[in-house]
Amino acid sequence: MAAAGVRVVDGVVQLHGALLRTEVDALWRALPAGPVRAIDLAGATALDTAGLALVLELAGRADPAAPVTHAPAAFADLCQAYRLAPPTA
Fold first, then answer.
1. CB 39 within 8 A of CB 13
2. pLDDT in tens, the chain (89 residues)
3. What pLDDT sits at residue 86?
4. Does 5-81 carry CATH code 3.30.750.24?
5. What is the Cα–Cα distance from 76 to 66, expressed in whole angstroms?
6. Measured distance CA(63)–CA(29) in Å, rounded
7. HEC string for the chain
């Protein structure tokens, strides 16, 4: 699996690679402190509950909540399983 990473372009946080428990700690440290306009998951190759928590926490920091775009099916599946309403564009 591809290593997880973060890139920020014009306030859009692009998360890529495997957004898994083993990667989340490093991703937290790489997240921007500034405003977030959206979260793009087009490059996400895998997602577990820890990755879900990271995405939802990041989205919730924005006011209003930053939309999540290009989310993989696992994102919607986990949101549904935990009865969460994902912020979407």
1. yes
2. 678 999 999 989 999 999 999 999 999 999 988 888 999 999 999 999 999 999 998 988 877 878 999 999 999 899 999 998 877 66
3. 73
4. yes
5. 16
6. 21
7. CCCCEEEEECCEEEEEEEECHHHHHHHHHHCCCCCCCEEEEEEEEEECHHHHHHHHHHHHHCCCCCCEECCCHHHHHHHHHCCCCCCEC
Token pair belonging to 27: 């991703």
Residues paired with 17 in a beta bridge = 44
As a whole number of angstroms, the distance between CA 35 and CA 65 comes to: 11
CA 7 to chain centre: 12
Entry field: residues in the chain: 89
Place of tokens 């209003």: 64
